[in-house]
Amino acid sequence: MVSFGLRDPRRSDPAQHHLDVCLTAYIKRCKKEDPAPRPQLAIPSSTILWIALHHCSHAMARMRTIGDLVVLAFFFLLRVGEYTQAPEPRQTVPLRRKDIKLWRNNVLLDHTLPLDELLQADAASIKLDNQKNGFRGATLHHTASGNTLCPVKSVARLVSQIATLPDTTGIGTYVDPVGVVRRVTSTEIRAAVQMGAANDNLEAMGYDLTRIGSHSLRSGGATHLKLCGYDETTIKKLGRWSSNTYLIYIQSQIGELTAGVATAMSRILRFHQVS
After folding, report:
1. 82-107 confidence digits (pLDDT tens)
2. Pairing of strands 123-128, 181-183
3. How far, in whole angstroms, is CA 143 from its chain's centroid?
4. Which CATH architecture has domain 45-248?
């Protein structure tokens, strides 16, 4: 109604900043009746390792691609829509080959180089265009880990398999055994994460497996950064958060986040009031 130039029926006076009391009270009651939010749970790097070990060297291109996408999403704190194609048009533009750079000794590597040369890259950069939060052109960078879990090697493999396709080809694209070009879906990512969680025996660690999905990769990456001692600026930068909403992902259900807190609080202290 307001967009058509009519009076806002939610306010008794046009100059009134807040909604009428009756509407405010109604919204408050609705919020109380709403069930508690159930965000997807952060998963540990042990689950990412299980997925990588069982996917990244698989004989099937589809399985290898899924494994490398999981590693990519975990390290770069990606939303699933940033590396898979949604069934309907969305604001977020999923990663394309032209959005990815591989480096070695600060020299840019050509995507058409043989895979063994691309795997020698020591850093990788990705550029995310037109994200969900409205930010455009955010660039993220990681150096090689030197371990089995390495985002740079995963990026190299993902790029190498589509190097001969147009540079607008979406990351996560692969060629199946009969030569058909296909792309990994968000459903396949979710299935791989849930399989990894089950095989990593997360249920025995207190996890509700029904609350694990593709968003668990972003949440898990953010939680790992916190556990490793990184400051909030670094976490917000990697996750492209402009506010403290990133704290939603640093989940209080993770026992390691409060390790030693009780010991520190049990120290006997005395302090005085100065007011």
Report:
1. 999 877 767 778 999 999 999 999 99
2. unpaired
3. 18
4. Orthogonal Bundle (1.10)
